[in-house]
Fold this sequence. Notes:
Elements: E1 3-5, E2 8-10, E3 14-19, H1 36-56, E4 60-67, H2 70-78, E5 82-85, H3 92-106, E6 112-114, H4 124-135, E7 141-146, E8 152-158, H5 171-181, E9 185-188, H6 192-195, H7 201-208, H8 215-222
Parallel strand pairs: 3-4, 3-6, 4-5, 7-9
Antiparallel strand pairs: 1-2, 6-8, 7-8
Helix pairs in contact: 1-8
Amino acid sequence: MDKGIGGLTLTDSAGVLVPVSPLRRAKTRLAAVFEPSERAGLVLAMMQDVIEAIEGAELLDDVLILSDDPRVESIAEDRGLRYITEHPSGDLNTSLRLGTEEYLSLRKNAPLLILPVDVPLVRSETLDSLVGEALTDGRPSVVACPSENRGTNALLRKPPNVISPSFGPLSFERHREASERKGVRFVTHRSPELALDIDCLEDIQRHLMSDRSNHSIRFLRSTGLGKR
């Protein structure tokens, strides 16, 4: 497909794999602040924010939702998105490899973005800018967005199996080193929207300082967090 962005005419697009933690074990670091039902509600609200950003992006299609939760599956089906059940082990990176294999069966060489739902401030134009880093260069590429604690909050691989995903603490350096070992072009894509992921109370407080009014912010305000 032909899609124009930033003065360029591109003839490709990327797929996106969105891992969503099963709601029964979502955001356990917030257990002292939120009841299980509230933590589940937060994850679903963030999922809506991220999906809407994806759907508004010009350079993303073929959305795959990776989880093991019936409510997440129902939302994916309602929006016409492909749903993949995570690996029985529940291990994130093993499940991401499973999702990558599923994507490769659909589009063998098209880029694949891994985008967690923990970044609900991300905008469509930010995603297009990230994807454009890979689409405008013909070489195999890895584009990674570092989190504030040197994790990885978005990972684009072209082709999708050029390196294996290695999410977790300090994963940004692991992704960079894996790319260098293979001689693959590595791009650091910095974005304030993607640097902040929602994992603890401090993250939520900073999230609520945004001038945005998206699903997750409205949900958090509805909980009366400031009165607790």
